[in-house]
Amino acid sequence: MLGPCTFWAIVGLGSALHSAAAATLEEVRVFAGAGHARVLITTEGALTRLEARSVPAMGERPARGVVLFVGGELGPEGERRIPVGEKGLVALHLERVAGGVQVSAELSAPRRVVAVPIGDDAVYIDLIEEGRGEDPSLPSPAQLQSWVEGALVGPSRPRLSATPAARRLVVVDPGHGGVDHGAVGVSGAREADIALQIAMRTAKGLRDELGAEVILTRTDDQFIALRDRAALANAREADLFLSIHANAAPGPEAWGVETYALDTASDAGAARVAARENALVREDEGPAGADPLLASLLTAGTHALSQSLADEVQQTVIRRLRSRYGEAQVQDLGTKTALFYVLVSTRMPSILFEASFVSNPADERRLRSPAWQQLVADALVEAVGRWFKAQE
């Protein structure tokens, strides 16, 4: 989701096979701001020609902004109305007409209409009220172009191996390291050390139990920039990215296990956790996930997969820990979302796992225990295996 000033939606329009001569409209993303809406449409196949016009209100018929995709096609879901109901943009209508596919924006008042191609596989449509300029809260053309270029191998088409027998590639990221030791527990346990120990055990299990190829972002106590961790996963076109951490809170009361996917913070506690994990972002990396709009663009298409992976991990870890230690000793804090910088730029399903709180004496003792670490690692391996199987 985005901030309160902006509405966005993603609607799949189908990915049926089509001839090279026609572009099939694939996805629509709507960003509605003050007097200005920007609609991003991606296609399968090259666009030929666009025709845009503004239509004033006539009688009971509302004002519209219309774009004709000449020679375009709709996927199997066919014609449809996409309700928006935000900032003067009532709805979008997609329909077949003579000569192609027409996208009509139903508006509360007339607007200028401009359609701008992005390469061969996308177009953005600006709908701007007379007398207004562009709304800076909306994604810029450069951001849209960056997303579209990345989408060809990244967010809109998550790279999952084509067959069940194919070898999966998992990047396991032990949080922190080197000068960044992360949180320090009540008896001195360092988050960086605990994360590395659990990550090494998890990597071994992924190789031994699932036959996966595993890359660790670090194998010893060294500092790796958050941006470089994501870049490694992207460069190797990993199937998923798993970042492992130990949690901390200002006082000793908080305890339990939680798992995060990338989005705006689901609550104040999630925002606090993200702020702590983002604390050592280098200045040249930019603000630590401060742009929820960009995060939504980068992860659009992998968000649902990341959320399902986070749910699978959380449920499996809690179930296995409780089977060993009992329900009273294991608190389920659930699956949450926050803007973690290490996840913002990844182009595959990605989650951040918080094993327990080093700031809580009982949690810290467990986190230092090899038996606890191994049980958590085994649960992570089981969850990843179950998630991969679901994708098949």
Write structural notes for this entry.
The protein has 392 residues and is an alpha/beta fold. The chain folds into two domains: 7-144, Immunoglobulin-like (Sandwich), CATH 2.60.40.3500; 169-391, Aminopeptidase (3-Layer(aba) Sandwich), CATH 3.40.630.40. The protein has helices at 141-151, 191-210, 226-235, 268-277, 292-299, 303-325, 341-344, 361-368, 370-391; strands spanning 7-12, 24-33, 36-44, 49-55, 63-70, 73-74, 80-86, 89-97, 100-107, 111-118, 122-129, 169-174, 213-216, 240-247, 257-262, 332-338, 350-357. The strands form three sheets. Strands 1, 2, 3, 6, 10 and 11 form a six-stranded mixed sheet that branches. A six-stranded mixed sheet has the order 13-12-14-17-15-16, with helices on both faces. The two termini are 27 Å apart. The model is unreliable at 1-20, 151-165 and 280-290 (pLDDT under 50).
Key descriptive features of the protein:
31% strand, six-stranded mixed sheet, 392 residues, elongated, 9 helices, disordered N terminus, Immunoglobulin-like, alpha/beta
User: CATH architecture of the largest domain, please?
Assistant: 3-Layer(aba) Sandwich
Q: So what's the overall shape?
A: elongated
Largest sheet: 6 strands, mixed
List the uncertain runs: 1-20, 151-165, 280-290
CATH class of the largest domain: Alpha Beta
Strand fraction: 25-35%
Q: In oligomeric terms, what are we looking at?
A: single chain
H and E order: EEEEEEEEEEEHEHEHEEHHHEHEHH
CATH superfamily of the largest domain: Zn-dependent exopeptidases
Strand element count: 17
* Number of continuous helical runs: 9
Query: Which fold name fills CATH's third level, the topology of the largest domain?
Result: Aminopeptidase
In terms of structural class, how would the helical and strand content be classed?
alpha/beta
Q: Tell me the Rg in angstroms.
A: 23 Å
Helix content, binned percent: 25-40%
The whole-number mean of residue pLDDT values reads 80
Span of the ends, CA to CA? 27 Å
Number of domain units: 2
